[in-house]
């Protein structure tokens, strides 16, 4: 009965309803968009840090990541059970690493070689998207090499040239062999561009005399922010000699960046909520406030104060729901636009290295349900509160005083 | 004039409604001003520490060094440095040379970037040295004291006071070695820096490399980034007398820092546009609501013989007054918030789990606001126009209404 | 022979006291140490050496041929095992080159690789480059002189670019052939030990044909050099030590 009255009230004063609704729709849509853009930036930052080199999780022999001792290696068989864990792992890459001297003609430079299986490596890192010359390692390439632009410049090589790699092999001998440059990448990260080289895993295993061995397995998971939880889940499956580390363990400065980004996001989001809440609070408050006279009349014709409160509650509730429905729709559409298209800033900006990662100059967004539901719920509470306060006041007034009020 | 007084009286007749509207407008203005000044301050700090740890607001290089980092491209800074130090707006001039080298202890060896510095000036400027105790600072330009990154020290298995040997290729291509002693240890929290940082007096490094007094980089730190506009042209004029040298602004010398800040700034701007829109819709709605609900009142005014024109002016004047008051009040509140954020700031560490060590070099853990007066004025004026704009439609409408209908409009 | 060198030493000792009393016995010890450090090279030399390197991870055995001229120039070429045959190192003054027959390339060892192990042994490239300066960079003092050994302490000059804190030489008092050399860090901790054995007479000189390098902190590791053939004063020319010779495969 009251519900029907509430709906009729909403319908009756269309202008007021539209005003109130528009505030709700526009600000909730914009809030959802802003939260999505924030999440998008965080994701880009994380992706840049992890998808260029480390991956989200790394399995290696205990202590390996600390000293990169070539003898801390293992056989991929040891982690077969983990790689079967399909629900949390979306990709993995087996890698062998070697530090040595790379030379071409009279030039030489120290380099870090990463022996990979090209098809697997693509599941974890995205260097194939950063090529500036030549092509990525072919699946069957026996001795190809994809190297950083800075390294290529220092050595003076281009795709097709033959490089010599020299290192100390695991049996103490001087490991050395020829590589053919297949591609050159430029990530914008100074360290990687000046020292990193991807080579076929089998080739490096042979040169280092470490047949069938790897130093690390880089994993890709669905939600990099939940890396610690995924690591904890996989840890019991590991043999005692191996350990699993998250991107945060491997890139502590990135963790610092994410933490400080989260704090500034918290501040800005708080302000956004306040601004949105303030607008909605005012609109709802005002719209109920202006009806004090009407409530006075209702009281005078015998409606009980409790019923008035309930009536207003229902009205604001319906209006809030209605507004949010459109607001969420608008917010999701705007966010999706940012997800799909985004704002391209590459005209004014070049890729940026940031605490071990590179960010492409594009403003995008991520659509997460938490970014939709939490603001929706908050705004609904704000609007109910905004309606309840004046209704409560009117309900407590003497009908005559309420009617007389302007 | 009497209309203005009437508008003022009108505003206060329904005190509750006016106060609510006023609160909405001025609080929104405060929020957006304080938020902007905070992020403005954070960017300033970011640029400042980036510039101080990096190559300064302005940098002088031999032409080509910036792109190739070729150690052969060095120059003698002595006469230049003194002249530039005398420029208005210049806080410090830092000579530096960078040499790829091998550091060896009795047990281990590591590749390092040997950086020759002028210790006293560097101490004052470089954020990497902020936490270094005085006793650990280099004392001379040509001593054998060295400051090492914490990780490098650990990997070489050295302790403070121990000696180690630095080997590099000098200008004529020969391998040369020099003994240094660990005098200070720096932990920046940036893995690559902690692993390769090796600071020594610049004359010792120059002598070792066989380049005497020459350096690779002359970093110029300004009192404020705004001073770049006046210092840069003077610097260009000075540099033109030294063929082969070039003066570069930090935006070009450190494109990564510049772009990181610009990208961050672009996204912040996007967020501010959204924030502004949210505030706009809130303000416009509050105003519309407060005016719309008064049609009955307008009807009475028209009924007692006021012209439509007079009513419109009255409505607009009310909005203008409301706008001016909330502009002033909002800016006052915004200034108070900015002042608080500038003096006290927001300590990020109180939001972050204890386990996370904040190096404090990459990011200042305390976020502080800075005044961006121009922006504050712009937003305040925008708000004023917004209130007027929002009143325009109801004002026009108010003039057209039929008094009888309006009065029925409960 | 032993008596001759002792006599020589006494004479030198005497002379030095006469000439520069303030320096005490320094010049003799310096000369003695220079002789120790040059014991395998002499004026010029040709040698065949078997090197055995053991680490916790592997053991390997190499046979090499060596040519040297003073301590400034030398050429080493691996002759066995077959897998590494032809790998060669050339040192001229401060520079080191490697030749890799598998890829047929000569690679100059850059400063950044100087700390690296030479041929996988416990001798670094830097040891090869710096060894000829020991007598210039250190001050020497006779610590002990008894029936079983002479103990000479070498302390680096205050500003010398050397990584050691102290080197102790133990020589046989009869032959003046080194028995052991201990390398300490600045905290007086023993870091590396080289011991000598199998002393033989070569071209009228007593030379310990076996040299063992022990990185003391890694007990499982060592490098043993056994000279199979050694010949001094073979009249090599400077021009012998060329990049062309480095690439010669035999």
Task: Give the secondary structure arrangement, pairings included.
The complex is a heterotrimer of chains A (406), B (410) and C (250).
Chain A: H1 2-12, H2 14-54, E1 57-61, H3 64-67, H4 80-83, E2 89-104, E3 107-116, H5 118-124, E4 131-134, E5 144-148, H6 149-155, E6 162-168, E7 174-185, H7 190-195, E8 196-200, H8 201-207, E9 216-221, H9 227-234, E10 242-246, H10 247-250, H11 252-289, H12 292-300, H13 305-340, E11 343-344, E12 352-354, E13 357-359, E14 362-363, H14 370-396, H15 399-404
Parallel strand pairs in A: 3-8, 5-7
Antiparallel strand pairs in A: 1-9, 1-10, 2-3, 2-6, 2-9, 4-7, 5-8, 6-7, 11-14, 12-13
Chain B: H1 2-13, H2 15-53, E1 58-62, H3 65-68, H4 78-85, E2 90-104, E3 109-117, H5 119-125, E4 145-149, H6 150-155, E5 163-169, E6 175-186, H7 191-196, E7 197-201, H8 202-209, E8 217-222, H9 228-239, E9 245-249, H10 250-253, H11 255-292, H12 295-303, H13 308-343, E10 346-347, E11 366-367, H14 373-400, H15 403-408
Parallel strand pairs in B: 3-7, 4-6
Antiparallel strand pairs in B: 1-8, 1-9, 2-3, 2-5, 2-8, 4-7, 5-6, 10-11
Helix pairs in contact in B: 1-13, 2-11, 2-13, 2-14, 11-14, 13-14
Chain C: H1 2-19, H2 26-37, E1 44-54, E2 59-69, E3 73-80, E4 88-92, E5 95-100, E6 105-108, H3 125-130, H4 134-137, E7 138-145, E8 150-156, E9 166-171, E10 178-184, E11 190-202, E12 205-215, E13 222-232, H5 243-246
Antiparallel strand pairs in C: 1-2, 1-13, 2-3, 3-4, 4-5, 5-6, 7-8, 8-9, 9-10, 10-11, 11-12, 12-13
Helix pairs in contact in C: 1-2
């Amino acid at each position: 009965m009251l519900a029907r009255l509430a709906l009729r009230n909403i319908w009756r004063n269309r202008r007021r309803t539209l005003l109130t609704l528009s505030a709700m729709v526009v600000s909730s849509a914009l809030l959802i968009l802003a939260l999505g853009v924030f999440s998008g930036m965080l994701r880009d930052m994380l992706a840049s840090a992890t998808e260029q080199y480390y991956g989200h999780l790394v399995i290696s022999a205990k202590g390996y990541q600390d000293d990169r001792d070539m003898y801390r290696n293992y056989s991929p068989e040891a982690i077969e059970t983990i790689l079967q864990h399909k629900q949390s792992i979306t990709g993995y890459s087996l890698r062998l690493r070697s530090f040595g001297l790379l030379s071409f003609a009279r030039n030489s430079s120290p380099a870090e070689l990463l022996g990979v299986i090209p098809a697997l490596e693509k599941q974890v890192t995205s260097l194939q998207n950063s090529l500036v010359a030549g092509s990525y390692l072919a699946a069957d390439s026996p001795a190809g090499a994809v190297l950083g632009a800075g390294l290529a410049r220092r050595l003076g090589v281009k795709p097709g040239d033959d490089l010599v790699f020299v290192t100390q092999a695991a049996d103490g001998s001087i490991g050395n062999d020829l590589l053919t440059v297949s591609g050159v990448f430029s990530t914008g990260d100074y360290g990687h561009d000046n020292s990193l080289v991807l080579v076929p895993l089998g080739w490096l295993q042979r040169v280092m005399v470490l047949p069938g061995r790897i130093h690390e397995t880089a994993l890709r998971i669905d939600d990099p922010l939940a890396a610690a939880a995924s690591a904890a889940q996989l840890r019991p499956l590991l043999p005692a000699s191996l350990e699993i580390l998250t991107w945060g363990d491997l890139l502590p400065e990135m963790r610092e960046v994410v933490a400080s980004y989260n704090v500034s996001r918290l501040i800005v989001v708080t302000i956004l909520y306040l601004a949105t809440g303030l607008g909605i609070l005012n609109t709802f408050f005002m719209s109920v406030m202006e009806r004090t006279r009407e409530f006075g009349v209702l009281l005078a014709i015998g409606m009980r104060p409790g019923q008035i409160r309930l009536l207003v509650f229902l009205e604001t509730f319906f209006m809030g729901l209605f507004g949010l429905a459109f607001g969420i729709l608008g917010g999701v559409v705007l966010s999706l636009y940012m997800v799909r298209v985004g704002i391209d800033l590459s005209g004014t900006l070049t890729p940026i290295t940031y605490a071990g990662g590179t960010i492409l100059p594009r403003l995008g967004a991520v659509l997460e349900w938490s970014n939709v539901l939490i603001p929706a719920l908050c705004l609904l509470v704000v609007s109910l509160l905004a309606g309840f306060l004046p209704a409560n006041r009117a309900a407590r007034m003497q009908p005559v005083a309420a009617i007389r009020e302007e | 004039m009497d209309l203005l007084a009437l508008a003022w009286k009108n505003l206060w007749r329904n005190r509750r409604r006016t106060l609510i509207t006023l609160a909405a407008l001025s609080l929104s203005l405060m929020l957006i001003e304080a938020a902007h000044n905070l992020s403005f301050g954070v960017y300033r700090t970011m640029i400042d520490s980036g510039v101080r740890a990096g190559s300064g607001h302005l940098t002088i290089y031999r032409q080509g060094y910036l792109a190739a980092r070729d150690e052969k491209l060095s120059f003698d800074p002595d006469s230049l440095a003194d002249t530039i130090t005398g420029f208005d707006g210049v806080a410090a001039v830092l000579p530096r040379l960078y040499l790829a080298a091998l550091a060896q202890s009795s047990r281990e060896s590591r590749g390092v970037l040997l950086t020759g510095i002028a210790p006293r000036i560097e101490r004052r400027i470089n954020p990497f040295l902020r936490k270094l105790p005085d006793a650990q600072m280099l004392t001379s330009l040509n001593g054998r004291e060295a400051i090492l990154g914490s990780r490098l020290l650990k990997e070489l298995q050295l302790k403070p006071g121990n000696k180690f040997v630095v080997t590099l290729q000098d200008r004529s291509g020969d391998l040369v070695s020099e003994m240094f002693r660990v005098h200070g240890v720096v932990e920046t929290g940036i893995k690559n820096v902690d692993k390769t940082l090796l600071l020594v007096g610049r004359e010792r490094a120059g002598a070792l490399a066989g380049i005497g007094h020459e350096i690779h980089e002359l970093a110029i730190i300004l009192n404020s980034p705004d001073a770049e506009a006046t210092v840069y042209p003077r610097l260009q004029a000075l540099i033109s007398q030294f063929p082969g040298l070039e003066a570069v602004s930090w935006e070009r010398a450190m494109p990564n820092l510049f772009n990181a800040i610009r990208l961050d700034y672009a996204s912040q701007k996007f967020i501010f546009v959204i924030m502004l829109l949210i505030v706009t819709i809130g303000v416009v709605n509050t105003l519309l609501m407060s005016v719309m609900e008064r049609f009955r009142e307008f009807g009475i005014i028209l009924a007692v013989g006021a012209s439509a024109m007079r009513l419109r002016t009255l409505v607009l004047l009310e909005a203008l007054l409301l706008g001016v008051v909330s502009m002033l009040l909002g800016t006052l509140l915004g200034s108070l918030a900015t002042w608080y954020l500038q003096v006290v700031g927001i300590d990020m560490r109180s939001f972050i789990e204890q386990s996370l060590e904040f190096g404090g070099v990459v990011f200042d853990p305390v976020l502080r606001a800075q005044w961006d007066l121009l922006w504050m004025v712009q937003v305040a004026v925008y708000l004023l126009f917004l209130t007027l704009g929002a009143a325009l439609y109801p004002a026009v409408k108010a003039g057209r209404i039929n008094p009888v209908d309006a009065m029925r409009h409960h | 022979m032993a008596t001759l060198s002792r006599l020589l030493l006494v004479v030198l000792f005497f002379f030095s006291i006469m000439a520069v009393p303030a320096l005490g016995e320094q010049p003799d010890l310096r000369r003695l140490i220079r002789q120790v450090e040059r014991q395998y090279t002499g004026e010029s030399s040709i040698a065949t050496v078997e090197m055995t390197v053991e680490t916790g991870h592997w053991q390997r055995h190499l046979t090499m041929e060596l040519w040297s001229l003073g301590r400034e120039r030398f050429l080493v070429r691996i002759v066995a095992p077959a897998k590494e045959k032809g790998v060669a190192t050339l040192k001229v003054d401060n520079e080191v080159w490697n030749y890799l027959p598998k890829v047929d390339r000569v690679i100059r060892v850059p400063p950044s690789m100087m700390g690296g192990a030479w041929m996988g042994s416990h001798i670094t490239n830097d040891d090869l480059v710096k060894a000829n300066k020991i007598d210039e960079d250190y001050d020497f003092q006779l610590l002990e002189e008894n029936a079983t050994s002479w103990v000479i302490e070498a302390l680096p000059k205050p500003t010398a670019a050397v990584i050691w804190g102290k080197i102790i030489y133990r020589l046989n008092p009869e032959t003046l052939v080194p028995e052991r050399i201990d390398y300490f860090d600045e905290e007086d901790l023993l870091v590396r030990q080289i011991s000598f054995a199998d002393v033989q007479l070569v071209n009228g000189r007593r030379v310990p044909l076996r040299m063992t390098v022990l990185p003391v902190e890694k007990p499982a590791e060592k490098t043993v050099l056994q000279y199979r053939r050694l010949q001094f004063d073979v009249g090599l020319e400077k021009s012998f030590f060329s990049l062309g010779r480095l690439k010669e495969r035999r």
